[in-house]
From TrEMBL:
Topology term for the membrane: Single-pass membrane protein
Entry's family note: Belongs to the AAA ATPase family. BCS1 subfamily.
Listed Basic and acidic residues bias regions: 393-404, 473-488, 498-507
Name assigned to this protein: AAA+ ATPase domain-containing protein
């Protein structure tokens, strides 16, 4: 009993009062705990204190040692590749990952129908499923199956209700095998103060060993898989920002099948000149020639003409023929400032087409007035120029508007197109309906090296349009038998069934099954069809006035009768009169509006 009432501190000769005070500071409640253990469990904490301290030191040292060994191992014995979200390689790898078998076996993944920009085409599922769609619609012998449109459309709608699921790795580490090597993928979302939040997501791909060749091979394989998915399709990018406050960048928006150059209704000489000039610009050794002569390696084109004459179509067709990517730029965007404009141009790759559509719709490209250098003939004669002829005076009149207006300026646009820091290797194509509105500085040589003027459709163009709509496609020529009972280009007899005289010219086409058994029966029918189409095209062109309608207007009319070529000829006269009346009424309305504005002013 006396032993229990004794002072515990007297039994601890190894620890002084000062040491106890220090332990009390380092370990709050040490004195109380030691007394409780000594009084009830007869355990002298001071006797084991050195072991606790040694254990704590060992734990701390092991922690730092493990971090050091891990850092040493990752630095000298592991190869790691970092991929950021704002780089296309991120999309390459994600697309490759989603196509691997081990994705279906993993228990941690990010599921969605569309994730960021990994499949940023908008045709990600439709493009892959389109091949099987035609097989269901067509029979094995090449003819149309008996399935009705309602049944077919019901299947399509039901299929479209269920979007394809996409699986990507979840945040954290994932281990997988590639060509017999164990690799690790680490997906992280790092916290940062960067304005572009999406850029915080990164991928780290690692392998054992200092040789990163297996990673290089995997990333190259991922790139090839991604590019092979597009095939010969034309890739289109758009300059935009992903979120509010983010910087502008080129985002892939879609990929489209290439358009044949012969489908663009334009004078053949102009088309060939345009194509030959671009091919000469892209030819091997041209860049060196420009550099030797001190000329910036840039090329610019202006495509002008009325709406619907095929300006953008020509650019798209040339891009498809040469395998170039198209980058779309909207100069009218109020959120696009000079810094973002320079950033977009600096990110343009070599050998691409920068397309600025309807450049005249942007106010910054409008003419500032007549140039005062050199002096005009009217001013030399003593006539005073109008007040609006001076760029300075024009700037004073619109200074208030310019201060309120945000976006880029004409000066920044001119500098980025042909300034000291302008990018090289790209092809600039601008389209406009009103070239007279553009400033002379924008049209000078070096910024615009060639101008192509598009015209309204003449008789020759109208014939080409008609033949392109109703002629046999290349796929149909390659098939063993033509498609009958369908709304295809081979069906001339439907249009002639309503007209007795015209049915005589196509009666040979109605005996398809009988002629298929004859030698060269199908080819003979197709030759008859082609000659028939050429004759009908001349008849159609004779009924449409030359130089009054755009190719787009005529094409729109023909699409309404895409299955009935003869009917299109019979009804074109009424369509021409209706269109003339609409244009006449529109012109009168515009004239009255201008007169009312003058009277009001």
């Amino acid at each position: 009993m006396a032993y229990n009432q004794s002072d515990p501190s007297s039994t601890r000769g190894s620890i002084s009062q000062s040491d106890t005070a220090i332990l009390e500071v380092l370990i709050p409640g040490y004195t109380f705990i030691s007394r409780i253990l000594l009084s009830y469990l007869h355990i002298d904490l001071a006797a084991y204190l050195q072991y606790f301290i040694a254990l704590a030191l060992f734990g701390v040292s092991m922690r730092y040692l493990s971090e050091y060994l891990t850092q040493f191992f990752e630095t000298y014995l592991v190869s790691t590749a970092e991929m950021r979200l704002d780089d296309e390689l991120f999309n390459y790898f994600m697309y490759w990952w989603s196509r691997q078998r081990h994705v279906k076996r993993t228990n941690r993944f990010l599921a969605g129908v569309r994730t960021n920009g990994y499949w940023s085409d908008g045709e990600d599922s439709d493009h892959e499923d389109s091949d099987g769609e035609d097989d269901e619609w067509e029979g094995g012998n090449g003819s149309m199956s008996a399935e009705s449109f309602d049944d077919y459309w019901t299947k399509v709608i039901n299929r479209d209700k269920y979007k394809r699921l996409r699986f990507t790795p979840a945040q954290g580490r994932h281990y997988f095998w590639y060509q017999g090597r164990l690799l690790m993928l680490d997906r992280r979302y790092e916290q940062t103060t960067a304005r572009w939040v999406l850029n915080n997501e990164k991928l780290y791909l690692s392998c054992l060993g200092r040789d990163p060749s297996i990673i290089h091979k995997l990333l190259s394989d991922a790139q090839h898989k991604f590019v092979e998915r597009d095939g010969s399709r034309t890739i289109i990018y758009r300059g935009q920002r992903c979120s509010s406050g983010a910087t502008f960048s080129w985002s892939r928006c879609m990929s489209r099948p290439p358009r044949p150059l012969d489908t663009v209704i334009l004078d053949d000489a102009q088309k060939q000149t345009f194509l030959a000039d671009i091919e000469d610009y892209l030819e091997k050794g041209t860049a060196e020639w420009y550099a030797e002569h001190g000329i910036p390696y840039r090329r610019g084109y202006l495509l002008s003409g009325p709406p619907g004459t095929g300006k953008s179509s020509l650019c798209f067709a040339v891009a498809g023929k040469l395998g170039l990517k198209i980058y779309l730029l909207n100069l009218s965007s109020r959120s696009l400032d000079e810094d973002n404009l320079y950033s977009l141009f600096s990110e343009l790759p070599r050998r691409c087409i920068l397309l600025v559509e309807d450049v005249d719709t942007s106010e910054i490209t409008h003419s500032r007035g007549k140039s005062i250098f050199p002096q005009s003939a009217a001013s030399k004669a003593g006539n005073l120029p109008p007040k609006t002829s001076s760029p300075d005076e024009t700037g004073k009149n619109t200074s208030k508007e310019k201060t309120e207006q945000t976006g880029i300026t004409l000066s920044s646009l001119l500098n980025v197109l042909d300034g000291v820091a302008a990018s090289e290797g790209r092809i600039l194509v601008m389209t406009t309906n009103h070239p007279e509105k553009l400033d002379d500085a924008l049209l000078r040589a070096g910024r615009v090296d060639m101008q192509i003027e598009f015209r309204l459709a003449i008789s020759e163009d109208i014939e080409k349009l008609y033949q392109s709509i109703y002629s046999v496609s290349r796929e149909e020529r390659a098939r063993p038998s033509p498609r009958r009972e369908t709304g295809s280009k081979l069906r001339l007899q439907n249009g002639s069934a309503d007209h007795g005289d015209e049915s005589k010219g196509t009666e040979n086409l109605d005996n398809g099954e009988a002629e298929e058994n004859k030698p060269n029966g199908v080819q003979g029918r197709r030759q008859i069809l082609q000659s028939r189409i050429a004759s009908l095209a001349k008849d159609f062109a004779s009924l449409v006035p030359s130089g009054e309608f755009s190719p787009a207007e005529i094409q729109g009319y023909l699409l309404k009768h895409k299955d009935h070529p003869e009917r299109a000829i019979r009804e074109v006269a009424a369509w021409v009169e209706d269109e003339k009346e609409k244009k006449r009424a529109k012109k009168e309305a515009e004239t009255k509006a201008k007169e009312s504005e003058k009277n009001g002013s």
